[in-house]
Write a structure and sequence with these properties.
The protein starts with 6 loop residues before the first helix and ends in a 6-residue tail after the last helix. The chain is flat. The chain is built from 13 helices and no strands. By secondary structure, it is mainly alpha-helical. It has a single domain (67-273), classed as MetI-like (MetI-like fold, Orthogonal Bundle), CATH 1.10.3720.10. α7 (168-176) packs antiparallel against α8 (181-192) and α9 crosses α13.
């Protein structure tokens, strides 16, 4: 006698596997968050404490003793501002590389991703003097510009790869109907590569959040500190390593990225798989 599995059984097994995997991925995050709400005496122990005593000391410290709201506001402004600059420059640049033929096009296309191979420390000192002479040190504008400059190449290359997958016949048909290049780019090409644009924007945002060298170099005062620099403030001084404060600040830096990715996961998954399989 054979037992046939119903669709309900298959759906239950699928959700069980996915739920188990989600729990496996979230346990380290939740454990890290629990460290932020422990007293310092229960963080470093010979044996792990699975049911810790909850304490809000670190939470009160980062919001009262440290201007964490300013750090969070600086991070959001610098990151989203840099992504906006990258998209404004990368979309027309990618369209030019994907659609026009001109001398040196292949060389330019190779040069763009090759800039990511350069060690950032090589240009750190020239960039510092450049921003100092421009009067942009310790400003959010400087962070926007440096983040945008670092990520512009990869954003351009990603968007270009999606634009090359769009059949030129669609744009040629619109051009025959009298549409200009700007109208074709705005009304046809950009909607068609929206998943790729979202993918490039999320990748640029993650890279900007993880940038530390130039942030520490440019933001030398608390007026322009971001969360990445704020984390460094909890790793020294007379109080030593403040593990619970580090855990809370790191979690605050993680939550915005998680919410953005969760909100656009449908477009992000399309962007990551677009063009991988061609019939």
């Amino acid at each position: 006698m054979t037992v046939r599995r119903t669709n309900g059984d298959n759906l239950f097994i699928r959700y069980l596997i996915l739920g188990s995997w989600a729990l496996f991925c979230l346990v380290p995050v939740l454990w890290f968050l629990s460290i932020g709400f422990r007293p310092r005496t229960e963080i470093i122990t010979a044996r792990p404490i699975y049911l810790p005593t909850l304490s809000l000391d670190a939470w009160h410290m980062i919001w009262s003793d440290w201007p964490m709201a300013k750090y969070l506001r600086n991070s959001v402004a610098a990151i989203f501002g840099s992504v906006a600059i990258d998209l404004a420059l990368a979309i027309p640049a990618a369209y030019s590389l994907a659609r026009y033929d001109y001398k040196g096009k292949e060389d330019i296309g190779f040069y763009i991703p090759s800039t990511r191979m350069m060690a950032p420390a090589i240009v750190a000192i020239p960039i510092f003097f450049l921003f100092r002479n421009m009067g942009l040190l310790d400003t959010i504008w400087a962070l926007m510009l440096i983040y945008a400059a670092i990520n512009l190449s990869i954003v351009t290359w990603i968007i270009r790869s999606y634009m090359t997958d769009i059949p030129k016949e669609i744009e040629d048909a619109a051009r025959i109907d009298g549409a200009g290049d700007l109208r074709i780019l705005w009304e046809i090409t950009i909607p068609a590569v929206r998943p790729g644009i979202i993918t490039a924007a999320v990748i640029a945002m993650v890279f900007a959040i993880n940038e530390f060298l130039f942030t520490l170099l440019i933001a030398s005062t608390p007026d322009a500190y971001t969360l990445s620099v704020a984390l460094a403030n909890f790793t020294g001084g007379s109080d030593g390593l403040i593990y619970n404060a580090i855990a809370l600040v790191a979690f605050l830096a993680f939550v915005p990225v998680f919410l953005v990715v969760a909100a656009i996961q449908r477009h992000l998954s399309r962007g990551l798989t677009m063009g991988a399989i061609k019939g």
